[in-house]
Amino acid sequence: NCTKAICVEDNVVQVIPIICNPPPKPTCSNGLSPVPVIDEDGCCWHWECDCYCTGWGDPHYMTFDGLYYSYQGNCTYVLVEEINKKVDNFGVYIDNYHCDARDVVSCPRTLIVRHETQEVRIATVQPNTLQVEVTVNKQPVALPYKKFGVSIYESGINRVVEIPELKMNVTYNGLSFSIRMPYSLFGNNTQGQCGTCNNNTADDCRLPNGDIAENCETMADHWQVVDPSKPQCSPGLVPTKTPSTTPAQPCKESSICELIWGSVFKPCHEFVQPEKYYAACVFDSCVVPGLDLECSSLQIYAATCADQGVCIDWRDHTKGVCSYKCPSNKEYRACGPVKELTCRTSQQNETSTKQVEGCFCPNGTMRYDSSVDVCVKTCGMMPYAFGFHFGERFTVDCQDCICLEGGQGIVCGPHKCPQHDKITCEGEGFYKVNEVNPEDACCPVVTCKCNTSFCTAKAPKCALGFEVHSFIPSGQCCPVYQCVPKGVCVHQNAEFMPNSSVFVDKCQTCFCTNEVNVNTQLNIISCKHVPCNTNCQPGYELQPVKGECCGRCVQTKCIIHAGNNAELILSPGEFKNDPRNNCTIYSCVDVHNQLISSTSEITCPAFNEESCKPGTVSFLPNGCCKTCAPLDSRTPCSVRQREDFIVYQGCRSVDRVVMTECEGTCGTFSLYSAEANSMDHSCSCCRETKTTVKDVELKCPTGETISHKYIYVESCSCQDTEC
């Protein structure tokens, strides 16, 4: 009881009260007042800055820490999730849609709150209105609703979702939303479009991977969630472009926006800064004029002021643009109670000082019950117009009631639910869930639900060119995974779509075909070698070139242009006579990988055909010079001179050189020897008997001059030789 006992000595115990010193009041980055929070000991208290996020208009956001930005995505996004998951299946989400004909800006359409086994959806019935409907697990529910730790009720123009265990509430009215969460439970542990709640705007633009984006407009697009009703949306798509806030023509903002700076809202200026709400109002009136979206900026500003204890009655100052009409049995109040008193709650003490705008029972009347929207003057009686007769039984707020004459009028008791067979949920992934019974909303029914997060089988990591496909067999919860081909080609750890080019190497042109390899299940890559020239001119051969795709024609033989346009092809070391003149000889040599051709002329000795016997004229072995057997006498063996060029290893003499040779007839016979009884042979040939060595200078193709020695015959004679 906020006292402290101290053992002094000898069983002397001193009991003193705990003294609480007033804690210093911090400054909240969102500009709102801090709230007092009781310490764990239950005696003292401290200040905390609540996590308070709002969104309105087309839409504009104010993060938990007060950072303002606008974002026009038309998908479903995470507003709040925990970074480190402590609450099962917890999160707040927003479904946005394009709310103008040009698809320029977006508006909120549905607010989604998930907590454990329940999903609450508050959906706008008609665009840009305050008409909403509430469903729990896709079933419409009547308000107030309270089940499994979630409470939903009406509060003025708002629908409020409260989770008492988490001390949080979420409000939505079709045009704006607000989320309030205690710092003690969610500090430094929130992520999504509402940012990180830590009283520091520097990290509000946090991405799902933990990085911080340059701006929250970029960040917001990364918080898409899979929504089957929006197949065009998927996490990771190209970020949504923000529309320009500069209109095509000069824009004068709506006069309604000026109310924010005027005397109407002046009492709130010192509690909630108006700059960001004014900027949002100007944006809406200039970018999407005619939709009256600027009313939402004034409405959320007034609601934030009311949250801080300042009531602003502003709608009558908008000249009917932002008017709000109530049913005939209700009256509009800018500052009504957060929870309207009813006949059942009138005796309870309402301690909340906060107020909200909405439609309330007129003065002098009271709402009969939170679930019976009828204003009565006397709580003990119910108007006949409501439809209950004396003795009639009905169910209200999950109680069985009877309308009695006299006394309190209506007597109620707990609603009795019928007995059902016990349900067991078998199979991996199934679990029991209490759901609202559409036939009797007060009696939940137990059903088996599937939660794939309970499944132990994980999606496999498929090889390149394959992707995971899953299917859930009939009657089961957990998916079965298999890797199926994508219909692509794979090369060097990369995937290629059919008909796209594939780089294999520079010498091939390849593309991905639609044909499938039956063994690998991957598409086949078809390649063709780049076109090359394979025809070479005579004397040239195609040889490969290192590092090149095509070979090159390289000269490997000498090309000699003879007379009459004749062309001779000679290999290195080859000699060939002129086709029309056997006295001309062409040759080809390879000197240091350079082909050199040369021409030699044969000089014939003097020849007189008349001295030849008829039929004895013939050519010498060189095919150029003529010879015959002489008529008169044999030509003696002697030295004959001739002039010709000397060619040696591709080098040639500059001028013709006098060279000598032995030529003549020597005795040669073959006769029978009676004594030996065989043929005797005698052979003699004309050969050199004396020679000398002479020098001559040769000119080479390289321009170099070399000295060359050759043999010069001085004398000849007939010499015996073996036959």
From TrEMBL:
Q: Mind telling me which SMART domains this protein's record contains?
A: C8, CT, VWC, VWD
Matching InterPro entries: Cys_knot_C, Cystine-knot_cytokine, Glyco_hormone_CN, Mucin_vWF_Thrombospondin_sf, Ser_inhib-like_sf, VWF/SSPO/ZAN-like_Cys-rich_dom, VWF_dom, VWF_type-D
| Gene Ontology cellular component terms for the protein in this record | extracellular matrix; extracellular space
Record keyword Glycoprotein present:
yes
Chain ranges of the VWFD domain: 51-234
| Cysteines engaged in disulfide bonds, as pairs | C651-C700, C662-C716, C666-C718
Q: Where is the VWFC domain?
A: 373-449, 487-554
What name does this protein carry? Mucin-2
